[in-house]
Amino acid sequence: MSTTGIPEALPGFFEAPNARIAPTPSRAQRTDRYRRPADPGFWETRTIEWLREEALPFWFEHGLDQERGGFHEALGFDGRSLRKPKRMRTMARQIYAFSIAGIFGWHAEAAQCVAEGIRFIQRGRTPRGGWVRVFNPDGTVADPTEDAYDHACVLLALAHAHRMGNPEALPLACETFAFIDEHLADPLGAGFLETAEGGEPRRANPHMHMLEAFLAWHEATGDRRYLKRAREIADLFRLHFFDGETWTLGEYFTRNWSRPADAVGEWTEPGHHFEWAALLVEYAHRSGDTDFFSYARKLYASAIANGLNRLTGLAFGAVSREGLPLDQVSRSWPQTEAVKAAIALSRTKGPDMEPEIEDRMAHLFRWHIDPAPRGLWIDRYDEKGRMIATEVPASIFYHLMTAFTAYLDRNRWKAMSDWPAARGSG
């Protein structure tokens, strides 16, 4: 890291054979760009440029596994696949990202990517109609576990593929809903099991992603049955996940949703505070239950007060209920969720969040986007602000896409109206 606190581009990046080179501004220009107070929408042009001209063309060219099918799990900073096992959640999230690109006309081959992704994940259907957890790099099944988290990711991807017009998405989603109702729903009516076989500790996180998926299907269809499903998750949050005394969100629980007595019960993640806050605001708007605005504000306030590294301004991986750092690594995805949460709260009757939104966007570009090769991102920093990433996880594209579409949507895509038509694969 430089003495100005601005991360430098990584050594050796620009000699990589497959790296696409972005213009490098001077240190003074970079410092001013990230630190000066920004007007609302300051990052719109850069966001559109990065999505349309850098990330989507790059991941179309390098992220698709042309030989074995599906998408690569992770790339090196030279743009080459690391040939890692392919998680179902990553495959689903790449389908989501290209579905969004197709919906808004940002990439000419988006529908092709979505169709290929859906064809690939169907290799992972289980005999009962669920989805496996992990593929080997060659596309054979590595782990057949039917995990609630992965099913939530598949449902989210299929909702947006359906919105884009993919004909397979709706039938596959109906089969997936039938599976989770029969095999993953808690027999006692309290959320979902970890896997079809149960298991502990139980986690809040799969339920958050189920909430996200249910809201997406409500948006895609207008069917209020999905909103009823969302309400069950929101009630579980209110009754069990949220601690009103510390304004924190638990991650791990016992079978009956009690907090574990050991250190696991102290574990909270600022990134998930932000992520839940944004989803609860969306649920409140859709359902009319505005009591959830208050929960969202408390989650955001707790994460900002206790979850940030004061040297870098980035969210830690985890802190205790009392705000003590437990995981001091700062990954990229919590920073995207901070953007989304600030934007969501700007749509409630609260304080002006516009400066906060621009500041969160500045942190995202300053640390994770602009120092990376064109179309890629730097995922991990240590507590001193030193880059410790060794790869580019494909699953982060989903987080970036959700944050950037939320940012641009603040003006109802006004920023897109004068942008040239999609130019193909680049």
Radius of gyration: 21 Å
Helix content: 40-55%
Strand order of the largest sheet: 2-3-4
Instruction: Give the tally of β-strands.
Output: 13
Distance between the ends: 32 Å
Mean pLDDT comes to 90
The parts where pLDDT drops under 50 for at least 5 residues are: 1-6, 8-30, 412-426
Please give the count of helices: 13
The helix-and-strand class reads: mainly alpha
Based on Cα principal axes, name the global outline.
Answer: globular
- Estimate the strand proportion: 5-15%
What's the SSE pattern? HHEEHHEEHHEHHEEEHHEEEHHEEH
Account of the 3D structure:
With 426 residues, the protein is mostly helical. 47% of the residues lie in helices and 7% in strands. The protein contains 13 helices and 13 strands. It has a 3-stranded antiparallel β-sheet. Strands 1-13 form a two-stranded antiparallel ribbon. A hairpin with a 4-residue loop joins strand 6 (242-243) and strand 7 (248-249).
Task: Summarize the model shown.
With about 425 residues, the chain is mainly alpha-helical.
Main traits of this protein?
two-stranded antiparallel sheet, 13 helices, 426 residues, three-stranded antiparallel β-sheet, disordered C terminus, 7% strand, mainly alpha
